[in-house]
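Researcher: Next sequence.
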Amino acid sequence: LNMRMRLLLLLAFAAAVAMYGQLLRNSEFRGDASWDKVLSLAEAGLADDPDGQRHEFIALVRMAQILDSHR
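Model: Next structure:
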């Protein structure tokens, strides 16, 4: 991947983490954030995950999505 693409993927993943936090807190600033959007952005940033931490994050998002649906 070229540098620009790597930066875009990093930004997408960072946006997913921020959106995840907004959803967890049920923040008034979450706008149109959704679990599906978090997953989409996070999965886009999976290209560089040597330690598996991004995959773990996606598992946490899926778990939170399931728990949220049972409220």
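Model: The helical segments are 3-24, 35-44, 53-69. DSSP finds three helices and no strands in the chain.
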